[in-house]
């Protein structure tokens, strides 16, 4: 004991001595001590006392030097501690689901934990791993695989006595899918035997849920596509479940899903979109009394409908060079699905003596074409077509269909000139006249056969249809270089609200304004264009003859087709929400971009947004910045599909355009997509890891590894330089030396 | 396509129609916006090998007017292959009876451009022989125009055989070869070639009578040649229109196509 005290600690066997001071410091100190001893010995008289005194001083100096070298006694050794037991408690929201007796699953946790070995280290898991018993069960995810990996890392190198998991088994981190998929290389790495305690009992509750809706994200206009809806029903004896599909809140269809033994089934809807844009499809199963999670009975999906090809109907009253070149353009454009009907023979051609059996002609299916088939086209072109020989009696109905097709269905119509067009086709007073951008009813000559060079108007200089070259300043020059046209269908001028893009250089209408050559207008939801001549083919062929190719002609018609069909991406106003689906309470950010006819940003445009949803209408307004865009937000307040309509007006209040989009608001909680504990997963996981599955209500003890433990390495360091023996020895030697000197009378 | 139902021909005979053609050419029809845009024909003339048959082509335009809804102008212009005015006439013919003068480089380039951008050329071997210098020179010319595309015999279901009439065997003044050849560009043939003298069957004298007899089947063969000529012009205007699905399906339904 006294020795340990003198040495400043225990210096047992098996240790080793380590000097911790740098050697050069020890060397310098030794040299200094030697010098001091020599100096102390030189002036003194010799004798036995003198020798004793020097010997004692040398001993004291030795003690001092030993202290300077800072010796430390190090003793090392291993020992084994008992293995630890770890428990993981599922803290996700699915643990709040009520059991059949009305109690929450979480109430089963305390009893389970109490039955675990004393000293169990408890962690809560959900979307991460946190030490301690969960205080709340509100984690938005359940990642058991991640939690087990975190435990393996935390206790790396240690053999745990056991790992207990308390969960309902509704894993959403991927482990369940992988384990049930029987993939061998994805099982979690474990530090000890695994015991899986199922929290919550299967059965006893009723829940019908739509678990998935699949459509691929986008669809093609007028092309049927499938929407598949997965449903699951638990706690019900029903063998089938009705599922309804709505689009933007409007019914699309209903199916009855037959359920398998596990209560799962799939409904398949075939949908043919009739408009481009973004739409919200929602699949829902009806709520039943006692449904455990009503919010999971419906699921929304955003589908973007795009055009694969523009479907064009070209009706031509007489084959001509103009028809030939337009067909060449339309037929060779892979983005166009062209259906042509050319009138090859009329009443006037019946006297030539040919028998009809010699002819390769088919009947003109005008009734079908302008009634049931009409709606499948994006663009209808009347090229020098006189309707009267075919459906004079049905004109109001069939021509009215075309007018409605434009105004109400947002489709497009083009009339091109010739001796059977405009007033020469007797369209004045018909429904077609209401959608033409020129006024009919010319008295006298309806044609001027004089060649002329069309002139670009101010409107034409800005309008996208007449942009032949990228640089606007060069556009008028490009038009002036094109071949002259051969003649003009006369009109009474532009219709109110229409825009004249090309005009005649000399001929004027009743209003004393130049007669239109090319005019466009918007009628209801659709658009129309009038080209009052039959020689636009010269813009292709004559240009090619000049060695300039046919780009001007192709550009003109491509521009025209794009503007006429009004693709959402090519609209002056574009609106989009930053996501397709929102949770209640989240901010919906709606961004609107406004561009002019030349697609330049429109700054300071007034943007009025109307959002129609199940909870009613919300209105927002703002003004665009220098980049032509403005972002407005509103809270997601009501569950269901919401349609966003935007109207943009320029600084002077003139309408620029409109646009639409859609988003969905849901109350679904991903954690509550399933409510039944997944015993199959827990059983399989236990079986594949050599662990133990304990069903709810069972009291099996956890698996424990008797050999578990951890080897601990001990290390004891005794700093001898600070031990009491050092100052005591130093003081003893110096004091005796001093006493000897005094006894022999030295000073 | 025709209006349904088609009406009968009435009391007109073919000879009456042809006789009246000289007196009333094109006067009975409504006109397009201007004659410049109406269908006409350009005759390509070389310094050697070609012949001009304006009466034949005028007759074709008249037949076209009488039989179809096409608005045509009784205009046949003679042009050199390097004449820029060729691009005012998208339908051109080249009829000949001897070896052709080789095309100049400028003429070749313009003809290629003409055919590539929508023009149509019908070449007619008027010799009525199985082998001719004209035929040899035509093949040389076509190889120069389209080094990578050969003249090939058209299949019997080609659009030109359905463009207006259903034609089972293409013949002209003679019926030696009974086929058409062509050079393809995409799904169309902008250049077609007959070796049976189609224009010879159409040609006529100043009094309106036929200029040449048709052999071996006489007037019946001429009638077929006229139908073929109309189809050629109609094909030049409507290209592969008759291959469109709607037409093919309808013709098959009516039993007129196998």
Structure description:
The complex is a heterodimer of chains A (747) and B (258). Chain A has 747 residues and is α/β, with parallel strands linked by helices. The longest helix of chain A has 21 residues, at 48-68. The model of chain A has no long low-confidence stretch (mean pLDDT 88). In chain B, strands 1, 2, 3, 4, 5, 6, 7 and 8 form an 8-stranded mixed sheet that branches. In chain B, strand 7 and strand 8 form a beta hairpin. Chain B is 33% helix and 17% strand. The longest helix of chain B is centred in the last third of the chain and has 21 residues, at 218-238. Chain B contains 7 helices and 8 strands; from the N terminus they run αββαββαβαβββααα. Mean pLDDT of chain B is 86; it is low at 2-30.
What are the SSEs and their pairings?
The complex is a heterodimer of chains A (747) and B (258).
Chain A: H1 2-7, E1 16-19, H2 23-41, H3 48-68, E2 71-82, E3 85-90, H4 109-114, E4 121-125, E5 129-131, H5 144-154, E6 162-167, H6 175-180, E7 194-198, E8 207-214, E9 218-220, E10 225-234, E11 240-247, E12 250-258, E13 264-271, E14 277-284, E15 298-306, E16 310-316, H7 321-332, E17 336-342, H8 366-369, E18 379-383, H9 388-391, H10 395-407, E19 412-416, E20 447-448, E21 455-456, H11 458-462, H12 475-481, E22 488-489, E23 499-508, E24 514-523, E25 526-531, H13 538-545, H14 551-565, E26 573-577, E27 581-583, E28 587-594, E29 606-613, E30 616-623, E31 629-635, E32 640-649, E33 655-666, H15 679-689, E34 692-694, E35 709-719, H16 725-743
Parallel strand pairs in A: 3-4, 3-6, 6-7, 7-34, 9-15, 16-17, 16-18, 18-19, 19-25, 27-33
Antiparallel strand pairs in A: 1-2, 2-35, 4-5, 8-10, 10-13, 11-12, 11-14, 14-15, 20-22, 21-23, 23-24, 24-25, 26-28, 28-31, 29-30, 29-32, 32-33
Chain B: H1 14-23, E1 39-44, E2 50-51, H2 54-67, E3 72-79, E4 91-96, H3 105-116, E5 120-125, H4 133-145, E6 152-153, E7 180-185, E8 188-194, H5 198-202, H6 218-238, H7 245-253
Parallel strand pairs in B: 1-3, 1-4, 4-5, 5-8
Antiparallel strand pairs in B: 2-4, 6-7, 7-8
């Amino acid at each position: 004991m006294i020795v340990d005290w003198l040495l400043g600690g225990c210096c047992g066997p098996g240790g080793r001595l380590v000097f911790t001071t740098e050697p050069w410091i020890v060397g310098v100190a030794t040299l200094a001590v030697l010098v001091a001893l020599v100096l102390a010995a030189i002036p003194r008289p010799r004798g036995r006392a003198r020798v004793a005194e020097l010997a004692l001083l040398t001993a004291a100096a030795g003690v001092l030097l030993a202290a300077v070298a800072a010796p430390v006694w190090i003793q090392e050794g291993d020992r084994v501690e008992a293995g630890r037991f770890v428990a993981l408690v599922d803290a996700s929201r699915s643990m709040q689901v009520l059991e059949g007796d009305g109690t929450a699953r979480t109430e089963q946790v305390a009893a389970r934990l109490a039955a675990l070995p004393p000293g169990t280290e408890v962690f809560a898991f959900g979307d991460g791993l946190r030490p301690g018993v969960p205080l709340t069960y509100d984690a938005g995810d359940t990642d058991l695989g991640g939690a087990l990996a975190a435990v393996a890392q935390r206790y790396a190198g240690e053999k745990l006595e056991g790992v207990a998991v308390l969960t309902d088994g509704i894993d959403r981190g991927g482990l369940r899918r992988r384990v049930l998929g029987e993939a061998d290389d994805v099982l979690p790495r474990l530090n000890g035997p695994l015991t899986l305690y199922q929290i919550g009992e299967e059965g006893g509750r009723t829940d019908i849920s739509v678990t998935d809706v699949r459509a691929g994200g986008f669809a093609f206009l007028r092309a049927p596509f499938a929407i598949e809806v997965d449903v699951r029903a638990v706690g019900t004896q029903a063998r089938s479940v009705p599922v309804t599909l709505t689009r933007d809140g409007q019914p699309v269809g209903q199916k009855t899903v037959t359920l398998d033994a596990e209560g799962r089934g799939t409904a398949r809807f075939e949908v043919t979109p009739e408009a481009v844009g973004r739409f919200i499809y929602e699949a829902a199963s009806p709520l039943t009394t006692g449904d455990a999670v009503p919010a999971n009975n419906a699921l929304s999906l955003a589908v973007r409908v795009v055009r694969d090809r523009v479907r064009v109907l070209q009706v031509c009253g007489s084959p001509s060079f103009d028809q030939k070149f337009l067909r060449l353009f339309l037929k060779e454009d892979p983005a166009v699905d062209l259906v042509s009907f050319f009138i090859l023979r009329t009443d006037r051609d019946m006297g030539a003596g040919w028998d009809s059996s010699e002819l390769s002609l088919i009947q003109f299916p005008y009734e079908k074409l302008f009634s049931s088939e009409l709606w499948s086209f994006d663009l209808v072109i009347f090229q020098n077509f006189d309707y009267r020989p075919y459906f004079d009696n049905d004109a109001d109905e069939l021509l009215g269909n075309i007018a409605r097709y434009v105004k109400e269905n947002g489709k497009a119509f083009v009339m091109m000139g010739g001796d059977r067009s405009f007033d020469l086709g007797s369209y004045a007073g018909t429904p077609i006249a209401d959608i033409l951008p020129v006024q009919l009813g010319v008295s006298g000559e309806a044609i001027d056969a004089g060649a002329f060079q069309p002139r670009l108007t101010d409107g034409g200089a800005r309008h996208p249809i007449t942009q032949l070259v990228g640089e606007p300043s060069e556009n008028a020059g490009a038009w002036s270089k094109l071949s002259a046209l051969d003649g003009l269908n006369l009109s009474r001028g532009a219709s109110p609200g229409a825009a004249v893009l090309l005009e005649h250089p000399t001929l004027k209408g009743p209003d004393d304004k130049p007669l239109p050559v090319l005019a466009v207008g918007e009628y209801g939801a659709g658009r129309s264009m009038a080209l009052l001549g039959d020689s636009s083919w010269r813009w292709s062929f004559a240009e090619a003859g000049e060695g300039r190719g046919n780009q001007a002609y192709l550009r003109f018609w491509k521009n025209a087709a794009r503007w006429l069909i009004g693709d959402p991406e090519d609209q002056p106003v574009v609106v989009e929400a930053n996501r397709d689906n929102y949770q209640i309470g989240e901010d919906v950010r709606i961004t609107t971009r406004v561009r002019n006819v030349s697609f330049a940003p429109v700054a300071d445009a007034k943007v009025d947004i109307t959002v129609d949803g199940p909870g009613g209408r919300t209105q927002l307004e703002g003004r665009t910045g220098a980049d032509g865009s403005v972002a407005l937000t509103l809270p997601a307040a009501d569950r269901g599909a919401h349609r966003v309509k935007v109207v943009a007006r320029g600084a002077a209040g003139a309408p620029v355009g409109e646009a639409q989009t859609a988003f969905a608001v849901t109350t679904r909680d991903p954690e509550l997509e399933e409510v039944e504990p997944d015993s199959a997963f827990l059983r399989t996981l236990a079986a594949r890891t050599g662990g133990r599955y304990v069903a709810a209500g069972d009291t099996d003890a956890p698996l424990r590894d008797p050999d578990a433990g951890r080897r601990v390495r001990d290390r004891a360091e005794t700093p001898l330089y600070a031990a009491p023996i050092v100052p005591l020895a130093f003081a003893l030697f110096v004091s005796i030396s001093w006493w000897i000197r005094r006894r022999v009378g030295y000073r | 396509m025709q209006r349904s139902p088609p009406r009968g021909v009435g009391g007109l005979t073919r000879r009456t129609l042809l006789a009246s053609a000289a007196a009333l050419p094109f006067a009975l029809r409504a006109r397009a916006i201007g004659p410049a845009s109406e269908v006409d024909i350009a005759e390509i003339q070389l310094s050697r090998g070609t012949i001009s048959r304006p009466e034949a082509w005028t007759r074709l335009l008249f037949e076209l007017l009488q039989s179809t809804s096409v608005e045509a102008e009784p205009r046949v212009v003679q042009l050199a292959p390097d004449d820029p005015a060729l691009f005012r006439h998208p339908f051109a013919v080249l009829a000949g009876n001897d070896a052709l003068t080789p095309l100049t480089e400028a003429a070749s380039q313009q003809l290629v451009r003409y055919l590539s951008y929508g023009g149509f050329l019908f070449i007619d071997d008027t010799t009525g022989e199985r082998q001719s210098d004209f035929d040899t020179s035509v093949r040389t010319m076509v190889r120069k125009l389209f080094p990578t595309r050969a003249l090939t015999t058209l299949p019997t279901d080609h659009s030109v055989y359905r463009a207006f009439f259903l034609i089972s065997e293409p013949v002209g003044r003679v019926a030696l070869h009974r086929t058409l050849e062509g050079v393809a560009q995409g799904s169309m043939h902008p250049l077609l070639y007959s070796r049976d003298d189609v224009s010879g069957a159409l040609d006529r004298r100043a009094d309106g009578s036929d200029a040449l007899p048709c052999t071996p089947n006489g007037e019946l063969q001429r009638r077929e040649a006229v139908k073929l000529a109309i189809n050629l012009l109609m094909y030049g205007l409507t290209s592969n229109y008759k291959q469109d699905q709607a037409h093919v399906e309808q013709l098959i339904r009516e039993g007129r196509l196998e």
